Amino acid sequence: MTTYYRDPEVLITSTGVWMNGREFRLSELLQVWYSKGSRSWGVIAWRGALGLTILLPVVIGVFAVLLALALDISLGDTVALAVGGILVGVAVVPVADLLLDRVDASYDRGSRSIEIWGRVREGDVLLMRTDNAQRFGRVYRALQRALEPAVRR
């Protein structure tokens, strides 16, 4: 027996599938497909807010440098304002790395729910529902690999 995928909620082997609390032999699955739900605009707004959070200090820094060059103030004040603006822009670098990790994680999770369906003799059954796009991809590919040898027989 070959194990294609295993986690606490899903097990896909060369003999069968265990998902959503139900077990199916591979030969029982006549067809497998997926469907995507509607987008979660909250997730998309969260990504936009993270992007703005990253850009805001850079914009403030650039504005301070431009302001220092545009104003008719003493050389010491101009240098202080320009250096302050550059420091604000540079200060975002360590924080930006953390925020970009969160943006990456939000893309891994996805912005919509995804369902894996299977057709058996009794009708269509929901095998799995998740909003984690990365996990969905792993499970669906494993399911396809498990079903390939069954089709060839």
TrEMBL record:
Pfam families reported for this sequence: DUF6232
Regions crossing the membrane: 49-73, 79-100
Annotated InterPro entries: DUF6232
This protein's UniProt keywords: Membrane, Transmembrane, Transmembrane helix
Keyword Transmembrane helix in annotation: yes
Protein name per Swiss-Prot or TrEMBL: Uncharacterized protein
Organism: Actinoplanes utahensis
Organism taxonomic ancestry: Bacteria, Bacillati, Actinomycetota, Actinomycetes, Micromonosporales
